[in-house]
Amino acid sequence: MSVSAVQPELRVEAIGKTFESAAGPVQAIERIDFDVRPGEFISVLGPSGCGKTTLLRMIGGLERPSTGDVAIGGRSIWTSGSNEAVRSLAFAFQDSRLFPWFSIEENIALPLRLRGEPKEKRLARARELCALVGLQGFEKARPRQLSGGMRQRVSLARALAIDPRLLLLDEPFGALDAMTRDQMNLELQRICKTTGATVLLITHSISEAVFLGDRVIVLSPRPSRVHSVHEVTLPRPRTIAMQETTEFQQLVRAVRTDIAGYPA
Amino acid sequence: MNRNLETILRIGLPLITLALFFGLWSYYVRDATISPFILPAPEKIGRSFLVQIADPGVWRHVRVTLTEALGGFFSALVAGVTLGALMAKLPPVEWAFKPFIIALQLIPKVALAPLFILWFGFGLESKIVISGVLAFFPIFANTLVAIKSTDAGDREVFASMRATPLQSFALLELPTALPMILTGAEVAIVLAIIGAIVGEFIGGNSGLGYLAVLRLQELQVDALFGVILILALIGLLLYGSVAVLRRLLVPWHQSAATRL
Question: Nearest residue on chain B to A95, judged by CA atoms?
Fold first, then answer.
């Protein structure tokens, strides 16, 4: 009985979502189940409009599911409404969403400010995170002085401020150019290793999903279900050169075949 | 080289326009085809202006008008931001009151001035009320719209960080709205001065509006022009202060970098 001793860090259980619209109810997500182990990196892929963002919002406590529940570290978010569970996760979005009236360190420290941390403590943490994401020297800068890639680093640092158990990333690098994106993926891998956080990444890019993930979950079109799950056995740390290996390319092909099975 | 020339022209050309304007004016009234009771020569107006600003009696009127305009402006600022924010955050409050605020806005409010004199007397109070009523709307409307149009994605970030409604208001909505509130304040300060002067026109015995009417009755037209000049300078000073304040308070905003 000791085999299943490891409690899942995140459990998504029979979650479904139906929206009410003027034309009647629209089922966005039929039913999705999966477990995530502590420290695991999960990539979620799916055809556009399959409800990936809705899934992330439900996991993150921002949108109530029509059916099912989500538990983080064994604490349910929706049925028992555990405040502790939602406080242990953090989001980063496609747009960096920094606030121009705050400096970089104030932006990073914002989640701590909202939790009432004293100023000295939260700014010290912000400076630490600035160094972690490679932005030493930019603590006092304003968001508009930074490039798109740098702003996304700040956004990531802000998400890490509360030391989350679970990091929810909604296409965080989707708006960046391909070169910056490769760079950011390497950075993300390094940061995740340092912090040990469990990560759920939503993306449109198959190679990004395979490159970063321990597992890739492929969703079906609306109303979505889990179509398939691919284990990525490539060793870590992964390098850009690894993308040229046969193993990597076979994985990408397998995932692509899954997705291509559906009409666009 | 080119930039230097541009700088010289930018400063020089308006000065030339001004000199030309006063030169033509001075030449035009010299022939005595125009009575000095209608249009005095600019140099006479200048002299009268200097005489008046040296007169402590005039400064008393300046202080009165300033007190009224600033009193009205700050009342409007507090009321406009409070009501605007309240209505933006509590839709039932907006539904209950906004139609009437809009309706009141459609009344030419200057026409209400005699009523306010009747209700609040001939002293400072009635002028502060008139000034405040005129200045209220641009601040109120800008606050309401700005807070309501806070970006949905920004709200989502605050929601994802579990911010309380009060925290979202103080750290997101108010800073988002500040540039527009201050733009409203720039319009409001000018209206506040108009309100104070209109109030002085119709009742009371102090303030620059009263002084202007007095000079007219005494047929001291050059002195009347002098009063107008003082009023223009007060307007410039107050408007300039609000504009500078906007730059200092919202340095992050695009509008802080654009010149008027």
Answer: B153
Residues of A in contact with B163 (CB under 8 A): 114
Neighboring chain B residues of A86 at a CB cutoff of 8 Å: 162
Q: Is the pTM higher than 0.90?
A: no
Confidence of residue B232 (pLDDT cuts 50, 70, 90): very high
Chain A: closest CA distance from residue B129 (Å): 34
The whole-number average pLDDT for the span B21-31 is 88
Closest alpha carbon within chain A to B169: A114
- Cβ separation A97–B175 shorter than 8 A: no
Tell me what pLDDT residue B1 has.
59
Q: Within 10 A of A13 (CB to CB), how many other CB atoms are there?
A: 19
DSSP code per residue over B8-58? HHHHHHHHHHHHHHHHHHHHHHHTSSS-TTTS--HHHHHHHHHHHHT-HHH
Q: Is B159 on the interface with A (CB under 8 A)?
A: yes
Percentages (nearest 5) of helix, strand, coil residues in chain B? 85, 0, 15
User: By residue range, what is the domain housing residue A98?
Assistant: 89-163
B170 — contact with chain A (CB < 8 Å)? no
- Is residue A107 situated within a structural domain? yes
Mean pLDDT score of chain B, rounded to an integer?
92
Q: Give the range among A60-64, A74-78, A126-130 with minimum mean pLDDT.
A: A74-78
Query: Could you tell me whether strands A10-21 and A67-72 are parallel, antiparallel, or unpaired per DSSP bridges?
Result: antiparallel
Is pLDDT at B85 greater than 60 in this prediction?
A: yes
Say if A263 falls within a structural domain. no
Sign for the CA dihedral angle at B115, B120, B122, B126 comes to negative
| Chain B, nearest residue to A94 by Cα | B153
Whether residue B240 is found in the same domain as residue B185: yes
Per-residue pLDDT at A262 exceeds 70:
no
Rounded mean pLDDT, A204-229? 91
pLDDT digit string (tens) for A101-127? 999 999 999 999 999 999 999 999 999
Give the model's pLDDT for residue B211.
95
> How many C-beta neighbours within 10 Å does residue A214 have?
17
Interface of A to B at Cβ within 8 Å reads: 60, 62, 86-87, 90-91, 93, 95, 97, 99-101, 110-111, 113-114, 142, 144
Which chain A residues touch B249 with a CB distance below 8 Å? none
Does residue B196 sit in the same domain as residue B108? yes
Shared domain for B106 and B220, answered yes or no, is: yes
The answer to whether residue B248 scores a pLDDT higher than 80 is: yes
Say how many C-beta atoms besides its own lie within 10 A of residue A175's C-beta: 16
Residue B151: closest C-alpha in chain A: A97
In a domain, B35, yes or no: no
| Cβ–Cβ gap A114/B175 under 8 Å | no
Distance, CA of A248 to CA of A79 (rounded, Å)? 40
